[in-house]
Design goal:
By secondary structure, the chain is of the alpha+beta class. It folds into two domains: about 250 residues, Jelly Rolls (Sandwich); about 35 residues. It has eight helices and 14 strands. The strands form three sheets. Strands 1, 2, 3, 4, 6, 11, 13 and 14 form an eight-stranded antiparallel β-sheet that branches. A four-stranded antiparallel β-sheet has the order 5-12-7-10. The chain has a two-stranded antiparallel sheet with strand order 8-9. The radius of gyration is 21 Å and the shape is globular. Bound molecules: 2-oxoglutaric acid. The site of 2-oxoglutaric acid has 9 residues, from strand 12 and strand 13.
Length: about 290
């Protein structure tokens, strides 16, 4: 077993767990180098997360300069990352935390905070970004740099996964949509526990664990890759990567009632074909009724 009983109990109680030095030596060096080269080749600094929280977390000057570097689906861009997301020791740890022999990768996202004003993260759950039918979903934060208070380490509201999915702010005062976050007057970053970590560590959290992080005030970029894993029978309801089939990193995809290979491989086309068929049947029923 990769994790001890104490580690699994800690995760179940607190909603998060730091697992030291999952990626080390040459394996880490390759990930570090590939991440750097992918950032140079594929990413742009963007304004990052939107919403009224920005003016609460930052003064006007910082807010105007605060940026984020984002890249999705690392494993589609780098073979080293393909190996990393399917690393057996990591997959086994996740299988213990999810209490399932089958583990599916749902998504991966790089969040890199540029030096000096790299974007803080308002407190939020990951649930509203990719809601699922239950909480057998863990997010794994792969640390590519040492983190501390200075560069904005990850912070958790301890035990908050037990609250289940909460209502998030999803619009600006003018009604336009913004990035989901918890109301800033009720949920404070000051109340969270800092979890500094070393490059090569992973920090794992439940999809419902409330978390956030402060600005990167250091003179170096702070890079973290978030990998989402689920039990394959935990179905996604909407949001980021909806209708994409994930790679199995442990065990097998179980076949459920009414399942088919087409549905498992092409969920979007399956849903469209099903909706079209239902529409055709509705029209046929209407015609039958009119034709009486
Ligand atoms: O990168 C961070 O500091 C926080 C990331 C985060 O909140 C997330 O990935 O949901």
């Amino acid at each position: 077993m990769m994790l001890t009983e104490e580690q699994v109990a800690f995760y179940n109680e607190h909603g998060w767990l730091r697992i030291p030095q999952i990626f080390t030596g040459e394996e880490f060096r390759e990930l570090d180098a590939d991440t750097e080269s992918l950032i140079q080749a594929w990413t742009q600094e963007v304004m990052g997360w939107t919403g009224p929280w920005r003016k609460v977390y930052m003064d006007a000057d910082t807010e105007a300069r605060s940026k984020l570097v984002v890249l999705f689906e690392f494993q589609l861009f780098s073979a080293a990352w393909t190996r990393a997301v399917a690393k057996p020791a990591l997959a086994e740890a996740i299988s213990q935390l999810l209490d399932t022999p089958n583990v599916e990768l749902q998504q991966s996202t790089l969040h890199a905070k540029p030096p000096s004003t790299g974007q803080p993260f308002p407190v939020h759950q990951d649930y509203p970004f990719y809601p699922h039918t239950n909480d057998r979903f863990v997010d794994v934060l792969v640390h590519l740099d040492n983190t501390s208070d200075v560069n904005g380490e990850i912070r958790f509201l301890d035990g908050s996964h037990k609250l289940g999915p909460l209502q998030h702010v999803t619009s600006n005062p003018d009604g336009t949509p913004c990035t989901p976050h918890l109301p800033t007057d009720e949920w404070k970053l000051e109340d969270t526990v800092a979890v500094p970590a070393k490059a090569g560590d992973v920090v794992v959290m439940n999809i419902n664990t409330i978390h956030g992080s402060y600005l990167n005030r250091s003179d170096a970029i702070r890079r973290m890759v978030r990998l989402g894993y689920r039990d394959p029978t935990n179905h996604q309801l909407s949001g980021q990567n909806m209708d994409r089939t994930g790679m199995m990193v442990l065990g097998r995809r179980p076949k459920e009632d009414g399942d088919s290979m087409f549905r498992a491989l092409y969920p979007e086309q399956y849903r469209k074909a099903k909706a079209d068929k239902e529409k055709t049947e509705d029209i046929k029923n209407e015609v039958d009724v009119v034709a009486g």
